[in-house]
ABC transporter permease
Amino acid sequence: MQELAPAGASYGGDTAAAQALSLAAAQARVERRRRRQSLLLALPLLSFLVAVFIVPIAALLLRAVENPEVARALPRTAQALSGWDRRSEPAPAAFAAVAADLAAMSDSADAGALARRLNSEVPGGRSLVMKTYRASRDVGAGAPPPEAVREKMLALDARWAELPYWQAIARNASRWTPDYLLAAVDLRRDGAGTVEPMPEEQRVFGRILLRTFQISAVVTLVCLALGYPLAYWLSTLPARSANVLMILVLVPFWTSILVRVAAWIVLLQREGLVNKALLGLGVIAEPLTLLFNRAGVVIAMTHILLPFMILPLYSVMKSVPPSYMRAAVSLGSTPLAAFVRVYVPQTFAGVGAGALLVFILSIGYYVTPALLGGADDQMLSYYIAQYTNVDVNWGMAAALGALLLFSTLALYGVYRRFARAELSLG
């Protein structure tokens, strides 16, 4: 009997271990099934985000470095210029290759795309390409030797002897190019392909990006100055009154941006309601110029974006217990000192979220500055639209869009770093 007890105990232990393993396996199956169900429920949303967010951004970044016009239209020329030093006149074979490539084009639209691309590099490229395209079959008729083709092309247009046109073709002979991204940060490649700063008079996008950030920063600060006291007041009201007033805050969301901008045009003009009210109160002696300048842009953008500042602030302020302020006052602090030292630090999360949201929305604004601002008040998105709709330069538009995207991501990264530092200190 003394020998059977350990055996029975071992058998009971093995049974308990087997039951534990079986239970663990069942729990693992349940967990896997739960994860599959969660994934299936989230799959439509993930598919939607990929289709309307990830894919367009990937296409934008791809188009910013894609350069298909010259590579597709002039394949023989690209091959003939592959070993060219870009400092002396190309060999006659390059002239013959240009004539052959232009003669092989079946559609004038391809020649037009090539002409636009080269014209963006060198002024006069459009007329040179189209003129040579129309005469290309006569230039190459009868399969003349390359030297004869060169003479015919120079007789047709003497600009074929100028290096900038050939250098532009050689720089863009590859399907992929950094030129658009370089131009977006005021850099360029010279005739030999070396990256260099653009001439001072051509450095525009750096100033435009700085202006975009300046306007966005001003709008963010004004929204914070107006939204913080309003959100604080709403957070101290009874729930019924706060809900009614919050509806008034959200009214701008129900109105089109174009309608609101048109209303501000009416209000801010020299004979508008704002100037009439200020004149009637004796604040000003003559009407102010509030349209087609920076003031009109800031006023309209603040009106449109103010709810995006109030909502995060209100949600955070509602979670701050009022007893903290009362406790600080009861311990001898003045109400103002208690507000600044006790209440305000607890709302920093709402301030950061609201400021980030307003700033990011501001740097992408287009309609409001275009309608209410002057020539020196246009933001980066205006030039993206210009290159897309007017100049039909998709590569440059995509490069500026990529610059705006990376600026936004960098800003968000800075915000996340400060947020993590605040949490670690807290």
Notes: Residues 1-5 have pLDDT under 50 and may be disordered. The chain has 20 helices and two strands. The first helix runs from residue 4 to 65. The radius of gyration is 33 Å.
